[in-house]
Write a structure and sequence with these properties.
Blueprint: E1 3-13, H1 16-32, H2 37-58, E2 61-70, E3 74-83, H3 91-94, H4 108-115, E4 118-124, E5 128-135
Antiparallel strand pairs: 1-2, 2-3, 3-5, 4-5
Helix pairs in contact: 1-2, 2-4
This protein binds adenosine-5'-diphosphate and magnesium ion.
Length: 139
Amino acid sequence: VETKVISTERVEIRYERDVVTARKLGREIAGDLGFDTVDSAKVATAISELARNIVLYGVAGEIEISAVVEDGERVGVRVVARDTGPGIANPELALRDGYTTSDGLGLGLPGTRRLMDQFELVTTPGQGTTVTVVKYPDR
Ligand SMILES: Nc1ncnc2c1ncn2[C@@H]1O[C@H](COP(=O)(O)OP(=O)(O)O)[C@@H](O)[C@H]1O
Ligand SMILES: [Mg+2]
């Protein structure tokens, strides 16, 4: 599988308002690529969850949104959420439904994993967290 990056945009994430900015941009980029409302909403929701995790736990970071083409035909949206925060001590636990260290629902990471076609979580305690997700249109 060869993945070509067509375009990339970044939003710095520190405050709640940055979450809104990133979510809107993601919806826009997905729409421009021909994603329908449902698929665009999935991308926007994933960005929202990952960006909010940066605000809540990662302190500061960025959301990078790219248009990608897989094998020269399938167009998708890739989102990279990275921060230089405390990292996640037990990533397997963090991916379980209902696990939260705040008063959240604990569905952000597992829900995002279900919404997207590809999901990768890389985290180093004391150094930060990077979540990479890719969505291709369902219809
Ligand atoms: N970027 C991050 N940096 C550090 N910890 C994180 C990060 N994202 C998620 N976590 C940890 O994983 C847990 C689960 O995250 P999530 O599934 O989004 O649920 P919630 O945000 O509702 O707690 C969080 O409570 C937190 O402990
Ligand atoms: Mg969350």
